[in-house]
Amino acid sequence: MNKTINQKAWFFVIPVFILVAFNAAIPLMTVVNYSFQETFGNNVFAWEGTRWFKQILLSERFHAALARQIAFTFIILLIQIPLGIGIALTMPKKGWGVPVCLILMSMPLLIPWNVVGAMWNIFALPDIGFLGHSLNGLGFDYNFTQQPGDAWFTTILMDVWHWTSLVVLLSYAGLNSIQPAYYQAAEIDGASRWAIFRYIELPKMKKVLTLAILLRFMDSFMIYTEPFVLTGGGPGNTTAFLSIDLVKMALGQFDLGPAAAMSLIYFFIVLLVCWVFYNLMMKNEAQS
Amino acid sequence: MIFKKLQASTTSGWEQVGKTKEKGFFDFDLFSWMAWTWQTAAFFIFIALCITVMLIWEKKVPGGSPRKGILGLDTTRGDRLFVSLLGSAFIHLAWLGLVGSLLWIASIICVAYFVVVFKYV
Questions:
Q1: Does B105 reside within a domain?
Q2: How many structural domains comprise chain B?
Q3: Which residues of A touch B96 (CB under 8 A)?
Q4: DSSP letters spanning A138-197
Q5: A163-196, pLDDT tens digit by residue?
Q6: Residue B105 in contact with residue B95, Cβ under 8 Å?
């Protein structure tokens, strides 16, 4: 049977094409244009060449923001991935506990970012917040609005609270897709609980865990709203992650040129990491 | 309006600040906020040309010539273009950060990098 070739369906892509042009391509092109120029507004621009890129690449402020960002992402991955796997392992496999656990787990994921920030801000306030007041009552000198260490602790705790569930749900799905035959074989061989985890569950979860790490990496690397509402990047600049610093530069200082250059560098880093993870996932796919 | 901007940005940038612009026939304000310059326009035309060349190449030799390159990755022509472009961005940034001047040398390195990526990756 001969299939008729009909390319008219491509016309159906046009609306999406226009949408992407307006919400992605045109703004991105504009950022590229801005990154080579200086402006004080009123649509008057002056060519500056690669000056902003040089300035950003050599600026200590950018290095510090990047270092904070990498540290933050690394710490939350280090906590959330093992914690998520651990919770998924202890969740019930059948019975009434399953829906209860799943609903409890998905609840933090449903709360909007800015609400999470506001909740944790009030929760952690040292004078009236439950967490802050209790910690101070227990004798800890806790004040996330003034002490950098406390600000970091609160930001990380908030992110762990908000996003560990995602890792849990993904790992749980991965665990549930393992055939019972594997467990039976392990039982016959007299494998220990650790051996079952190491040689059956972990390899079988590899795909979902790669996805979980990618999602958590991207989300935390581009985190803005939660720390912005919680600490506003403070005290000082100690929790000003890349996107917070970027917004400060672009909208606070109206340095559109340097901010555009910084956002392009930021974009390239994100793109590189995405590409690496994409290839890792494709490799996993090919192996299984 | 693109060419009007070009003049404004290259010849007399700062003298324009705070002055009302004279409006030419094509100088409507729909796109002036995009701040086009010929350099950035040339860059995007280059990208568009790359994609067009890929389209023609794909018409001539369909299938994207997939292979396993030296990185151990399954790549097609599109992947190789992406790796080339992203790598070039990082080469230029590294040059700007470490050397700072004579950026065209980085561009020459990038051409060599393009060739290597399309041959071996």
A1: yes
A2: 1
A3: 50, 53-54, 57
A4: TT----TTT-HHHHHHHHHHHHHHHHHHHHHHHHHHHHHTS-HHHHHHHHHHT--HHHHI
A5: 999 999 999 999 999 998 999 999 899 888 999 9
A6: yes
For A38-76, what is each residue's pLDDT tens digit?
888 777 888 888 899 999 999 999 999 999 999 999 999
Give residue-wise pLDDT tens across range B18-35: 666 666 665 556 677 788
* CA closest to B9 among chain A residues: A46
Q: Is residue B31 part of a domain?
A: no
The verdict on a CB contact (< 8 Å) between A36 and B39 is yes
Chain-chain contact of A44 with B16 (C-beta, under 8 angstroms): yes
Q: Does domain A60-287 have CATH number 1.10.3720.10?
A: yes
In a domain, B32, yes or no: no
* Chain A: closest CA distance from residue B34 (Å): 5
Contacts of A209 (CB under 8 A, 6+ apart): A81, A85, A170, A171, A174
Q: Tell me how far apart the alpha carbons of residues A4 and A154 are, in angstroms, rounded to a whole number.
A: 61
> Contact, A219 vs A106, CB < 8 A?
no
Non-local CB neighbours of A145 within 8 Å, separated by 6+ positions: A125, A126, A151, A231, A234, A235
The pTM score is: 0.84
Please name the residue that has the structure tokens 């749980």: A172
* Residues 6+ positions from A122 with CB-CB distance below 8 Å: A128, A129
Give A200's DSSP letter.
Answer: I
Q: Where are the domains of chain A?
A: 60-287
Is position B79 within any domain?
Answer: yes
Which residues share a beta bridge with B75? Answer: B67
d(C-alpha A193, C-alpha A170), whole Å = 21
Q: Sign of torsion, CA A104 A105 A107 A113? A: positive
Domain residues for the domain of B73 are: 37-120
Burial readout A144-153 (b: 16 or more C-beta within 10 A, e: otherwise): bbebeebbbe
pLDDT tens digits along B57-104: 999 988 888 888 888 888 889 999 999 999 999 999 999 999 888 889
Identify residues of B whose CB sits under 8 angstroms from chain A CBs. Answer: 5, 8-10, 13-14, 16-18, 21, 29, 32-37, 39-40, 43-44, 73-74, 82-83, 86, 89-90, 93, 96-97, 100, 103
Which DSSP letter does residue A236 get?
A: T
